[in-house]
Amino acid sequence: MRSGKINIWILFTMLSLFACTKDKEAMLPPVEERVTEAITNLRTELTQPTHGWKLEYQPTNQSGVFFMILEFDEDEVHIQSDLAENNGEFFDHTIPWRIDNALSLELIFETYGVFHYLFEQDGATFGAEFEWAFVEKEGDNLVFRSISDFNFDRSTITLEPAAADDDELFARDIAANLSAFSTVSPKALETPVPKQQIIFEDSDISVWWSLDPTKRIITSILAGTGSDFEDPDFSAVILEHNSGYILQNGRLVLLEPLEFVLGGRRYTIDEIAFSEFSNTGPSLCTLSSSNGPLYTGFISGLGSISMVSSLFDLEGTGFQPIAEFPYSVNSFFIFDESTRSLSEEGGILAEKFPDAVAFIFYYGFESETQPANAVGFLLDDGNGNTDIFLREFNPTTTVGNKINVVLNNTYYHTGTPGPDDQTNLEEITNLLFEGGDVYASDFPVEGLVVFKLFNPCNQYEIFLVQ
Amino acid sequence: MEDELNVPVNQGPDALRNELDRYIDQNFIQEYGMAILYRYVDRYVSPTQRVTPPRLEVVKPMLDFIEDFWIDPYISVNNGEDFFRKHVPAEIILLGGLIYNDDGTVILGTADAGAQITFTDVNSIDRDDNAWVLQQLQTVYHEFAHIVHQKYKLPNAFETISPQGYTGAGAWFILSFEEALQRGFVSPYATSSPNEDFAETVAYFLFDKNFNENYIDLETNCNTPECEMRNEGRVLITQKLNSILAHYERVTGVKLEDVREQVLSKLQE
Hints:
- The complex is a heterodimer of chains A (466) and B (269).
- By secondary structure, chain A is an alpha+beta fold.
- Chain A contains eight helices and 27 strands.
- In chain A, the strands form four sheets. Chain A has an eight-stranded antiparallel barrel with strand order 1-2-3-4-5-6-7-8. In chain A, strands 9-10-11-12-13-14-15-16 form an eight-stranded antiparallel beta barrel.
- Chain B is of the alpha/beta class and 269 residues long.
- Chain B is globular and about 65 Å long.
- Chain B has helices spanning 2-5, 19-32, 56-75, 80-87, 130-152, 177-183, 194-207, 211-216, 225-252, 256-268, and strands at 35-37, 49-50, 91-94, 99-101, 106-107, 109-111, 116-119.
- Chain A binds chain B through residues 33, 36-37, 39-40, 43-44, 74-75, 95-96, 98-99, 108-112, 116, 119-120, 123-125, 130-131, 147-148, 150, 382-383, and chain B through 4-5, 7, 9-13, 17-18, 38-40, 42, 50-56, 59, 96-97, 100, 102, 104, 106, 123, 224, 226.
């Protein structure tokens, strides 16, 4: 009996709830009207703040943070950002926007701007976004979630009402100065990521890292005593540390501080306060009369630092002499400063040696008939006749990842040279090894050991397969 | 509350919101019944594809390019204007960059059953960049050619001219241009199906100023197997081109040779 009373009570309550819901639905305006109202309300929210919205945008958990201020009007949004790429195109730009109603209210940045630039990185797999689903209003802030992120951990952005002086937080000069280090980096078949050497003036150590100004990621590679790999007392520790960073108030702040021990001393780098930028740093090309970038600054607890360009690559130190066989590559994989293959139509290799099928780099090769150190080409006339034509260089060693190639005038030919072959080989090899120094770096290819040799004087690049 | 609801919510992607929208409305929508879509809308591509819209400032120059190199060459030849107006796709989509598939490949241009042509890489617009210009022309001529075979079918027995050379949608990209030519095709992609062969041959014929030299004229003093195979390929391409030219003229009234002449003169300007 008691059980029956409870059941009747539950049934009555359920009926009341349904009735209540139906009554509420009956009181609601039509869907179209509610959608229009919701869109209007969000548009009103976005256009409301006098000084717009500020945003610290971190596209992925691994990347750094971009500071932005967005001011919405009826049709367009004025976006200020601290992304210096594309010659500062995205420092200040205005594009159209709209609110869509799909699965939820969606904020769409309709034409190309800073969000789209970041979205396109790494073949559009980096993880940035320009379509945002409205999540909620949190106090005065508006929260949106990425619509198209591939992963389940979708990125969110929080728009906070900006203060009148928030534009003073921008550190665009630092962003532009750091981008200036991008000028001398290998770039054929890869996105160039500039590398720097951070010289600690007061403690005589250096840190080598790569700094990706587009993703705002610093990958620390090595910390060593002194500033030169040729120093016989050089000692180092390998660093495997990645961190995003943010630029604000004249500082580069690491999201994950870098800590290491060297020579019994513990070092911690959490931020750099930059002071002077100039083009008075060392040049990586021995022939160059112009200098490279130099950025000075200060790290709390560690003192003054100088940041200069570097081409150090830890895996590149593995480019060592091989007695058993030469390094080689399909002749297509030699590129000029515009990343154009020298074997393409109009390229010097296509012009001088159209029959070249491979580039060969003899480095410590042990043979009774062939030279130990030489560079040149494997030629194939298409009728099954092949020929190796080489120019020798003086014995050398890999210091760090730098190889000094001093060409001499000794040539080696397995066949009968054509009348212009020697002159042509001299011209091409002089170009490839202009300045004498090339820097090896690792180029990841599954199942192969592949290096790149980069010439800092003319920015030519040669792939070599071990 | 009523007042608030009356606030204009602008703002569909198709609304006339600025001077550019009004220009498009007047010169493309009202003129040809062809919408130009430059604001991002996610339905333009499949969920597995990732694209970006163009920069606002490149849209007008791109429209000028489309007029100069696609619309004008067609409407300035005999029967061309009538053909163009009757067969123009309903939507032209402009994308800022390439179409990135989630398998890592990229798409340079697409068309959808005659209803839509998509231009990619519009942000790189540069009339002095030969590679960019030819890429855009290849896209639009190729996609516009699809409309012809979709509506009027392929030329009679077209697919029997080089039947051994076709590869398939999943295999064409392992061929080089040289191998494609030896099989009797203007490009590796042309080997993927008779429809693509038709569209590629039309496109290359219209924009490649060296078409005859590359694909029609036989090499003389041919004494290597490779050279002989290239010449055999050229014979097949010549047969296919002739059937395409006759078919085009018969079903559309347009002589593609005249369109080509217009295009080449534009390219020389």
